[in-house]
Amino acid sequence: MAFVEVNNVEIKGLSVAVPKETKTVKSQPFFTSNEAENFTSVTGVESSHLAPLNLSLSDLCFEAAQKLLIETNTQATDIDLVMFVSTSRDFYICPNTANILQHRLGLQTSCVAIDLPFACSGYVYGLYVAGSLLQSGQLKRALLLVGEMPSKNQSSMDKTVWPLHGDAGSATLLEFSPSVNNSMKFNLNGDGSGYQAIICRQPGIRNYPVTEESLKSVTIDNGIERNALQCEMDGSEVFSFAIKKPFEAITALADNYQIDIQQIDYLLIHQANKMIDEKIRKKLKLPAEKMPYSMRYYGNTSSCTIPLTMVSQIAQSLSEKVNSLIMCGFGSGLSWGAAHIITDKIICLPVIEV
């Protein structure tokens, strides 16, 4: 386990943007009404937001970042680093989406622009990487842009993934501050032996090139149709991973840094589905009010579930006082990480619809 700390960095503001259009679980053609009810009972998802064809994740992150800069009274020239954390890049190979957003947001050309292709663990990893680049003080402020647009690489006829996920993008303003007393503490992990548990096999270099055959939809099972460009998930392997590794990461983080889990204000865990997350909460013996959910109306938004939960469920607490937070992201890779973050009256914008 990789235990690492980031010093002299704090979260100053946070915003999230989602598409206006929504899809509901009960309207999916592969579900009967009873199946839809059972799905919602297990996952906690009733509906989610769905991007139209002409909207990309970078558009959502742009809107979130632009409004965050205004509300925090931050000038574009104040940003020294922009980091885009997602697998939903504008272009699969190049250029980096962070560079495109640097230009769209009017950031200076001396601004460092980096893409990190993480999915569900992306917010935790993004905080660590961006924070690490800020902590020396040579860079002062960063925009961390994190999110996912799974609707672009999932089959709408695949009941294992389509009704569960939603589209969302976030912007977090991080700032170097030598007066910050509390470090950000992380426990980061990965296991590539499970890389096929959640995978899009094409496009990419390993299975190059994309052909007409790649675009043909194949019936895998009842209610599961997809082509080679669309994401697939091994549900049983993901479930086994998700009920074990996040709990271990959180408890190891707490043990290593002597954090009393019972004294934190909130546990912000990636919302894979409610049944998995509730198992983790109960094993940690935390009361329900300390683990807020946003997935009922937003679904599993991959790396955006943590910031989306912050702005949609606990914004008042975050904006009014100091909060002790444990975050945990886990997913494709396989990749997982836990973090202990202290926030102090951060600016949280209402969820933006684009």
Describe the structure.
The protein is α/β, with parallel strands linked by helices and 354 residues long. The protein has a single domain (1-354), classed as Thiolase/Chalcone synthase (Peroxisomal Thiolase, Chain A, domain 1), CATH 3.40.47.10. The protein is built from ten helices and 18 strands. The strands form five sheets. Strands 2, 5, 6, 7, 8, 17 and 18 form a seven-stranded mixed beta sheet that branches. It has a five-stranded mixed beta sheet with strand order 1-9-16-15-14, with helices on both faces. A two-stranded antiparallel sheet has the order 3-4. Strand 5, helix 3 (97-104) and strand 6 (112-116) form a beta-alpha-beta unit. The radius of gyration is 19 Å and the shape is globular.
How much is the average pLDDT? Answer: 96
The CATH homology group name: Thiolase/Chalcone synthase
Please, how many helices? 10
Largest sheet: 7 strands, mixed
* Strand tally: 18
CATH topology: Peroxisomal Thiolase, Chain A, domain 1
Content-based structural category: alpha/beta
Query: Beta-strand level of the residues, as a percent range?
Result: 25-35%
Helix content: 25-40%
Q: Using the alpha-carbon principal axes, give the shape.
A: globular
Give the topology string: H per helix, E per strand.
EEEHEHEHEHEEEEEEEHHEHHHHEEEE
Tell me the number of structural domains: 1
- Rg computed from alpha carbons, rounded to a whole number of angstroms: 19 Å
Please name the CATH architecture. 3-Layer(aba) Sandwich
CATH class, anyone?
Alpha Beta
Termini, distance in Å?
A: 39 Å
Could you list the spans in which at least 5 consecutive residues all have pLDDT below 50?
none
